[in-house]
Amino acid sequence: MTRKPTPAPQPSGERATRGFKPASGLLARQIRHVGESRGFAIAKLLTHWEEIVGSDMAAQTRPVKVGYGREGMGGTLTLLVLGAAAPLVDMQKEKLRAAVNAVYGYSAIARIILTQTASTGFAEGQAEFDPRPKPAKPAAPSPEIIAKANAEAAPIKDQDLRRALATLAQNVHLKNQTEKG
Hints:
Elements: H1 23-37, H2 44-47, H3 49-53, H4 55-60, E1 61-67, E2 75-82, H5 86-91, H6 93-104, E3 109-117, H7 143-153, H8 159-180
Parallel strand pairs: 2-3
Antiparallel strand pairs: 1-2
Helix pairs in contact: 7-8
């Protein structure tokens, strides 16, 4: 007589799930820890900043920390703002405060302090905050330039080197063409 194997006991409080887990669930503990270390009681303020204040304001601001006084009510939100945008953001502080307090559900933020900086002062990984226009992408090379570059690199036996030299030749020919024309 054979017995069915008994399933392994599940840890208390956790339900066994099958399939994929949402990425937000995997990072929730780390996001909460980082947010709480900077005074953010609700991590949603950090993770959904653009939805809370709008895309225009999110492009110019970033929440840095929330500080609370001795009584615990009426905290101070510190926002990082690009230097040139600070006067415009300053005029909209009340609108920002109302939007942030709507997330908290009560008047958690009494003041907003702006910290100005240049885009070069941000930490790595924050380059997307820079609202300056991005440089235009170069024009695609014409089929004639591609054929000429491939013909020049054809004698090279190593495939990776040949591809790199063909790309270099395309860029040189394209630059020469734009300087002449």
